[in-house]
TrEMBL record, chain A:
InterPro entries: AAA+_ATPase, ABC_transp_ATP-bind, ABC_transporter-like_ATP-bd, ABC_transporter-like_CS, P-loop_NTPase. It comes from Saliterribacillus persicus. The lineage of its organism: Bacteria, Bacillati, Bacillota, Bacilli, Bacillales. PANTHER family: TRANSPORT ATP-BINDING PROTEIN. One of its GO terms (molecular function) is ATP hydrolysis activity. GO terms for biological process: transmembrane transport. Residues 11-261, 285-524 form the ABC transporter domain. Keywords: ATP-binding, Nucleotide-binding, Transport. This is Peptide/nickel transport system ATP-binding protein. It comes from the Bacteria. Coiled coil: none annotated.
From TrEMBL, chain B:
This is Peptide/nickel transport system permease protein. It comes from the Bacteria. GO terms for molecular function: dipeptide transmembrane transporter activity. Residues 104-300 form the ABC transmembrane type-1 domain.
TrEMBL record, chain C:
It is found in: Cell membrane. GO terms for biological process: transmembrane transport. SUPFAM superfamilies: MetI-like. It comes from Saliterribacillus persicus. This is Peptide/nickel transport system permease protein. Keywords: Cell membrane, Membrane, Transmembrane, Transmembrane helix, Transport. PANTHER family: D,D-DIPEPTIDE TRANSPORT SYSTEM PERMEASE PROTEIN DDPC-RELATED (PTHR43386:SF1), OLIGOPEPTIDE TRANSPORT SYSTEM PERMEASE PROTEIN APPC (PTHR43386).
Amino acid sequence: MHATTNMLFEVKDLEVTYLQGDQREPVLKDVSFYMEQNETVALLGQSGSGKSTLAKAMTGMLPHSARVTSGSLTIGTEQVANLTDTSTPWQRIRGRRIAMLYQDPRQALNPLMKIKDNFRELLQDHQLASSRDYLQISEQWLYALNFQDAKRVLECYPFQLSGGMCQRVCLALALCLKPSVLIADEPTSALDIVNQREVLDVLKTVQKQYGLTLLMITHDLAVANSIGDRVLILNKGKIVEEGNTKKVFSKPQDSYTKQLLSARSLLSESPQRKSVSFQSKQKLLEIKGLEKQFQQKQVLTNIDLTLHRHEIMGILGQSGCGKSTLARCVMGLETINSGQMMYKGTDLSKLNNKKRRAMSKHIQLVFQEARGSLHPGRTALQIVMEPLHYLHLGNRKERQSLAEAFLKEVGISSDMHARKPPQLSTGQCQRIAIARALVLRPEVLICDEAVSALDMHVQAQILKLLQQLHQKFEFAILMISHDIRVLRSFCHTIAVIDQGRFCEVRPANALEKESKNAYTKKLFHSALEMEKGLSL
Amino acid sequence: MLLIFSRKILEALLTLGLATSILFILIRLAPGDPVAIMIGQSSDVASSNTERYEQKLLELRSEFGLNQTIFQQYFIWMKQLILFDLGDSIHTGRSVMTEIADRLPATILLSVAALFIQIVLGILLGVLSALKFGRFFDHLTRFLCVLFASTPGFVIGLVLLSTFAVTFSTYEINTEAKLSRLWLPALTLGMIGAPQWIRTIRANMLTEFGQPYISSAVSRGLKYRRIVEHAFKNTLLPIVTMTGLSLTTLISGAVVIESIFSWPGIGKYALDSILLKDYPVIQGYALLMIALVIVIHLVIEIVYSFIDPRIHRKGEENVKKDY
Amino acid sequence: MLKKIINFKKSTSFIAGIILLCILFILIFGASIISPLDPVEQNAAERLQKPSLEHPLGTDRFGRDILTRTLYGGQNTLISSVVALSVALLIGLFVGLVAGLFHGTLLDAVLMRIIDVLLAFPFMVLAMIVAGLFGTSLFHLLIVVAAVWWVSFARLARSIALQVKSETSFAAAQILGASHLTLILKELLPKAAGPVLVFATFELGTLILSISALSFLGLGSQPPSPEWGSMLADGRDHFMQTPHILLGPSLFVILTVLAFNLIGEGLRDRLDPYEKFE
């Protein structure tokens, strides 16, 4: 596999360990790969696979607790760095030969510096411009990256730009040194799908235009699929499979790759729910004309929503659209500015503290941060008993047996009852959180991005679990998510929310075909574009 | 922007009103009759016959409005405050305002000089210590910080005084507020406050070094000096707050040092007045300190909103935030 | 070698602080066993002696052994500062957590206003005013401590409460129906306790320093009671002639505050360790 003629970048036998306590934990084991000139390689790995460590190791930016035990880095024909050597002249390599893009573009720019000052320092330090002509050069680069009003952007502080714009600024900063290799570490995962497309498109264009060799580090199959010529799969610090993207995704060899792909197709396959009419069923939750402002900023505008018994309704929206605020309003964690939220005829917004507390028996919420929503110092069993204790339901024995029963329902075996959240996986934590919500036997369960922080195959498991529990206990679900695939396969009805307003509410299986709304179409387009060739 | 400022100023005025009211209550709660104490000072009346003494007491009481109800007294008191009438010193008979105005410049001079020393030491050692994190220099600086922070100011002052005034005779001991006498008390106050500055700047620098924008700047191959500048720029914001806090601590806490070095400032004057039970002066000193603290806090908030673009521009541009 | 001694890694400072504090405690509270001399009885024949084998820190102007008096004096100083600061800590913790829990309501606004007003009185200034109006005594000083020192604890506790409130686990407890009391005791208090205690160790040091400064000025406890502050006040007037009178109490103030500061440093490093940057 090394016999390529125009090989540009090669990493050989990279091994990195982290110091944990007094022990050395290996993070990367025997990692070797190469990139050809003008090639885009996607490095795909789930959280904890060591992919960020890999990116840091290639620019000599590992934290102090990490140690490179072996490895070398070659660019072109020249071995630029023996990675174990701490005296490598990184300053001549960073930026000029290898550029980096980071996950959160807003935090990757100094908050107190205008964009133009970033350019000035960079160009001056690398002796590419003087204090007179730097503005002109930086403007050209911004225009090259699709900025319409480069002059204004240069005068802005990072907080005045959107995430996508910040990432393009970072890209311009990286490109203006004309590096041969660009390493992008999850450059789009902090962005919503529309911004994500924007950045990916720009990346593709500049990669071709400037003949860049691009290493795209990502956890997202769709991103890897849409951009990578070749793909490397990283699992637990080892590259388990590599090859042409199409080939790997259509005929995976390694068991881990297969597992990733099958989880993906589980999510994507639309069971095409029959359109069930819920009109005749009892209305559980009825929201009318809900408005919410945060310090003069309108977050939710005129929300109307009706949730019937046994219905699963999805709320689809990108980050910052106000969908989590809606959940928090229903749960009484936020006060609303106007409108009505009726639960079986009682107005939720007019309850006093005591009645509000009692309402938790009827409406429950599961959070995105599974681990964060559980008290780290309590055992699984104690966590599930918590709500019963708060509401003074039953005696100690009854609480315990009820909690045990519900832990069994969510598939947590009894040997794990005494474990605390730090000793449990994220998936197990989310199961416990679901058990804790259901132990009160609510009639409405709100899932606020309840699966988005989970790895792909765990997502599929949790969704399946929710479906089973829904069948058995017959509660209604309000499923809030940014992920079209999750909602399409899981919900009866989907409401699309954009900038605090409902665009449309339609049956899930009809949304794609019947939608006339531009925003919905854009969402579908962005999502499906990236999936091309993935859904088998 | 203007709206925020005027709101802050109104809040500060409210705080000032409430704080002065607390002071009034404290003064009225104090045991002993101020008038009796006052007469006790001028011994010619006290020693003579009791009838004249009683009469003098009544005269002075009505003069101070002490025979009216507490609320009336409060309003008279407030009115005098608003007119900047703080009464006369019992001891010297001069107006408290002039007495304080005579001494305030000396204290401000001392505090500003000490603040300057603190900031220079703080930035220099704090930044260096952060850059040498985990090395010998860092450990030494941290240890000295803890040691100096654990030593009472008067000990540092007395050691310096005995070294420079007694052993080397390079420092003259008198009660003048001359520039040539400023350096030693300023140095002492500087050394007392410096550990706090060094620790804060070091900690802030380390926090900034951990931020993603620093690793991003490193990955762009910027010069080392530049990266340190980046981090330092972001540590400047907390420094503004610290300047204000230090200034209040310095002005109010200069008492000890002023008294050791016989520096004729406001703190030493207040201390002498307390020992002489000169009530109008104590009251005047308290009012001055309260007003100073509130004004300094107000100025910090306003300055802060000017230098941090994130606060400054809020409302003008749409600040994008995830909810 | 020096590097090892002053190495702050691996909570060396914490251990050093604890050891130092233990030694001081044994010395101070075992004063009657360690020193056979009487702390109050005057002895005109041995006035103002320089340090010697018999009197390691010399004698004061009444011929009393300074070391003995310093040891006995520590009992008063330590107990009274700890009691006063504990009162302040409890008030501050309670007010801060309540204000944090009810953030955005009238109750929070009122509590914050009270805090703002009290912040306008620097401790030294208020202590001086009280000493001037009500007379100088250690008791008055301690009342002042309890009355204003809680403000700094309250501000810290409130900021922690606000931070905890934004965490998911707090929202979870809220929607599961926890009452206000449960929220404070089970969600806010456990998370606030650590940082507040660390802060309190530092504040204890600051308090001892402040009290000693005020006593040095003659505004604290009064002679002849064996107390560090009053001993400092006593030695102040004759400092130029007999500096050793100040040595004993000063040394013990420094060591005690140093012990608390070292413990605080060690604890704080455990709470938030920094990642090393090259």
